[in-house]
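The pair is set out directly below:
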Amino acid sequence: MQPSPPVAKRVPTTDIVHGDVRHDDYHWMRQKDDPEVTAYLTAENAYTDAVMKPTEAFQESLYAEMLARIKEDDQTVPYRRGAHFYYSRTEKGKQYSILCRKAGSLDAPEQVMLDLNQLAEGHPFLALGAASVSDDGRWLAYTTDLTGFREYTLQVKDLDTGALLPDRVEKVSAVAWAADNQTLLYVTEDAAKRPYRLQRHRLGAAADLLYEETDALFRLHVGRSRSLAYLFLISGSFTSTEIRYCPATDTGAAWRTILTREKDHEYQIDHGRGAGGDVFYIRTNGGCRRNFRLVVAPVDDLRPERWRELIPHRDDVMLEDVEVFGRHYVVQEREEGLIRLRITDVESGGHHHVQFPEPTYDLDSDANAEFETGAYRLRYQSLITPASVFDYDIAGRRLQLLKQAPVLGGYDPARYRSERVFATATDGTRIPISLVRRADTRQDCSSPMLLAGYGAYGFPYPAGFSSSRLSLLDRGVSVAIAHIRGGGEMGKRWHDDGRMMHKRNTFTDFIAAADFLVKNGYTAVDRLIVEGGSAGGLLIGAVLNMRPDCAGAAVLRVPFVDVINTMLDESLPLTVGEFEEWGNPKVPEQYAYMKTYCPYTNLDARPYPVLLVKTSLNDSQVMYWEPAKYVARMRAIGRAVTPPLFKINMDAGHGGASGRYDYLREIAFDYVFMLTHLASFLAPR
């Protein structure tokens, strides 16, 4: 007998915004401490477990299959900072990493700085936030979260003795050491989890407040230049930046402002050397140069008229990041959706590019702690190349592979094929799609496919490697990523064209990508699964309201689906700051536009596909009640093919389980849901 899903009670609530009467029968689910809420979420988990019970053996075997590809006792590539080499390692059977170092040489005895497995004892969740060592190597300042709510507690450990200092601070979001090895600067959060206060704390003494950010759109961060010469205090919103600085040797000095905040001007700062002495490198998009340019200015005179342009603005190339070293600087440039490195010699001004041959890939900086160095460490991966750490010898222009993440069990990348294709949006815009499939997959509409998307905050969706994904590919399931507007793949304007009053472009782009893949034989609608998490969950929720027939199944992870109610509540984390991403519903025009796509608001009696919706009770970014209300309302008024499954992790936050084995089990569950739905289309094994 098929189990029956829980039926959530209805408690009618009415709200009127701009004269528009809105009804919400499930507002009561916001009461996290209400026993009825706990009972309802528990019942949802029980229903999902009952439906998935016939797959328990498959879940276990798939978990074992994915685990067998992982080297459980592994180590990161050590990097030098000061007198020590730092790295982390894992041990078989243990959920968390162990942070270690060696003094002077890699042949020296190992010192364990922090064993996260010990810190996690007695707790179902543990996340490490900051981990910063003082310049002299004696003190480790670190922050941990034990609930998943991303509320981090700061502690300081004496690495000479192993003792913890009594200094303990709650709600810390960022940490930096001053040059005296005794003074910590850190940022604390307000009640809405907005980082807003900079505190200076001398070990063993009371902290004093240095700065408070009063504009609710702005969040604070504190950091240190790679040269170690300066501390930076960064006030940033989604569209504007203001940075202050002071010498790291004198935290009592006045903090000077680089550039005062102005609308639609973001910038990044770092310290380096120039022909005439110390300079600040400024990556700036002021003056409507949306994709940024790079300029340099004397530290003692930052007036724009003293700026010297190093890299001009280009409409087709996004200046995504800059890292400054003693003799060179490295710029990450993104063109046509792909990252390349531009490396420039400080003295001569000569530059060259480092490019990579695969059609789609992901590239990022790795540990580059030393200011004086002739090498640049990077992490490269693709849909078929495992994460690989390289040192790039700048003078010799050579890449040296230091480590590639092992994939046990005889992984052969030649068995797979990655490619990049383009769909055409309704307005004619070309939408990049990265995809990977088995090399023998036919392009005749017979292949099952998983299509993922995000499209928010200007974040590019990385086309990275996953050994777990092989469990889909080896069963004939192709995997694709739609690089839709709202993300940052094609530059700043790509983001602009998918936010605020242009947000619907994100959803129509994704639909265009799905339709393209079907039309061109990569898959068929009945064997296409779409997925997204967080803002990507909003994407999938909106798409299913617009085109419930675009896919046969969908997975929504911690989905941001109750957009209007969340954006009306300024007491929630993130709401006010994200007025510049989604809009402010207290503005009539923005409310009206938001109402056209809000997934919860627009649920109706549609034939929604098979659904799995996931959340975590302690999520601070998308509250658990958003997907809870969404599922309850869909069941009440929708005509889904089958009742949606709703799974809640009662001990985690936005990223799901924190332990690596627990997280792998979550992936196994998701994949079993997908593979069970696709069972009749799968290649025999």
